[in-house]
Model the fold of this input.
Amino acid sequence: MSSVKQLFDRNIEWAKRIKSEDPQFFKKLAKQQSPEYLWIGCSDSRVPANEIVDLLPGDIFVHRNVANLVIHTDLNCLSVIHYAVEVLKVRHIIVCGHYGCGGVAAAIQNSSYGLIDNWLRNIKNIYYRNQEQFSSCVDEEERIDLLCEFNVVEQVANVCHTTIVQDAWKRGQDLTVHGWIYSILDGVLRDLEVNFNAPEQIPEVYRFYPGGGRR
Ligand code: CO
Done:
């Protein structure tokens, strides 16, 4: 059996299993999706959004890229956030990084991996700006893990600085942005407790509406 063929076999078994638990599951879901969460995570195969939080199809809207970055000129990521906030009206945006992230590790090192170096440059900037905070790290692994956390905090800020999130807050929409980190060693999520749900929480220069933008 080819390795691709087995995916179809597994799919049939999976669909059967879901239907046996709830015969109407796919029929109901086909009518509409109304997820409460947008997940922005790393493409790493060990960090699958639905599985980690044990949610079924329909419960979570997902965007993943290498090292869970939110770049202001990335039309793909911005379109996902826009659709999630303005159409699906998600109530939570979760930026979820993970310890031992290969993208973050590559950004700390001086090796070249080709095109992706330009993407990972965004993480180098975070490392360079916060260099002194890494002086107490005992080894490279600890430096990488600390940078994984700094990266999540930075991407949470980037989400908040988009026009999309600020427009939602201006409309009075209930929307909170969270920063989490996942450990591939034990499968456990940790809340970095960087939660934003109002324009007053972001630095003034990033606000698009005077006085914080509340209605
Ligand atoms: Co990663």
